[in-house]
Amino acid sequence: PVIFSTKWFKVWHKDLRTFLWQKKKPRIKFKNLCDEKQNGGLAFPNLQLYHDAAALVWLREWILLKNTKILDLEGFNNKLGWHSYLRKPKNKIDKEFKNHYVRNSLINTWNKHREYLEKYTPWWWSPIEANTLKKVNMSKKYLTYRDVIQIRVGRYELKPLEELRGDINCWLNYHQLSTQFNEDLKERGFSKKKSDFELLLCTNEDKLLSKMYKLLIKNELADEAVKTSMIKWAQDFKQVITIEQWQKLWRNGLKFTCSYNVKENIYKMFYRWHYSPEQLYTMGKKGSTKCWKCDELGGNYYHLWWTCKKATKFWLIIHEEIKTILKCSFKRKPEIYLLGIIDKEIPKEHHGLLQYMLVAARNSYAQMWKSDKIPTKENWLMKVLRYAQDAKLTALIRDNTLDKYMEDWSALVKYMEKIKKTTEIKKCIFI
Q1: Using an 8 Å Cβ cutoff, are 395 and 405 in contact?
Q2: 80: which strand partners?
Q3: What are φ and ψ of residue 151, in 5° steps?
Q4: Rounded to an integer, what distance in angstroms lies between the CA atom of residue 87 and that of residue 399?
Q5: Distance CA 63, CA 57 (A)
Q6: In whole angstroms, how far apart are CA 191 and each of 119, 151, 214, 377?
Q7: 428 by DSSP, 3-state: which?
Q8: Fewer beta carbons within 10 angstroms: which end of the chain, N or C?
Q9: Coil, helix or strand for 158?
Q10: pLDDT tens for residues 13-46?
Q11: Quick one: 76 exposed, middle or buried, by C-beta within 10 A (0-12, 13-18, 19+)?
Q12: pLDDT bucket at 311, cuts 50 / 70 / 90
């Protein structure tokens, strides 16, 4: 569809946010929601960018100049070639061209994203076609900059007229081409490689719309590469968490399960979902900034999850039990227990089981978020055994067998047998 006003996109996005948050205050930025999952986002659709991506996909016809029937029909009253309008600044495009309902929408979208998509003079641009009067039944193949430019000793030069004989037979046309080339070289220069936009349009046809959308969303969220929650976690931990560590969590740390209940907890922790006493007090809610657990001042998010006396006691219990289950020793670090960023100290074969145990611990603790109590070891174990069903279903979906599942959870089975919880094992793991 051709939509001129951005007003409708704002209205639709508002309706989507109202439905998503149920008329409550949003806890995650809209930009972070729209980001790709591999970058810590939730891949929520940005309707404005989907519309722009669809328009840019149609511009492929204007750029490649192959589908002449469509181009003749769409540009029946063009004065110059298509590349002339793609090259001209927004304020110099003639009114006759913009009077066309579809052309106007497409060219406006192109001008909106042009600086990002093509920072340099595009290699696909044809100065000869741009400066040629538009003719009906266009059939001639026009030379692009990629056809007429050569690189010598690191410098861009126009090929001599002798090499272009057959395509350019008139010295006057060659002189015009040379003048245009020198102007573009001075104004914007040329890139050594093809742009992502050119690679997408000229060499790829599969899933073009989704790939174009990803290209636009990448530019739209360039300033959100380091999210606010990432900075806050680093400040709380008093250490740097590298982008590589975050990417490992997003790209690999979520692949251990198919259960959205489990993934939900990981996303909630990353985006600091739960309201702390300090946040509620700042929002104007009744109450104080005292911690709900230890009744001391300074009840911020990190204190409630980690530095509070009762929270510390809970995580010490969980830490000792996990070491006993996995039969390996490692340090009790907040990034492991709160975010699931696992160290190299822990063997890789235990990562899946460990993630389930950590999610169980965090969910058990969150269920008593505003209480002055903490979960017991038994509460945590029962939660772990419930997640065993999610692990079992994940194994059946992905592998269609339970061999790897039984191997991964064997450490917990031995632990439960040791503490004489055989009945629970049979109910939750083997059934």
Answers
A1: yes
A2: 133
A3: -110, 125
A4: 53
A5: 10
A6: 9, 12, 22, 61
A7: helix
A8: N
A9: strand
A10: 999 999 999 888 899 999 999 999 888 899 999 9
A11: exposed
A12: very high
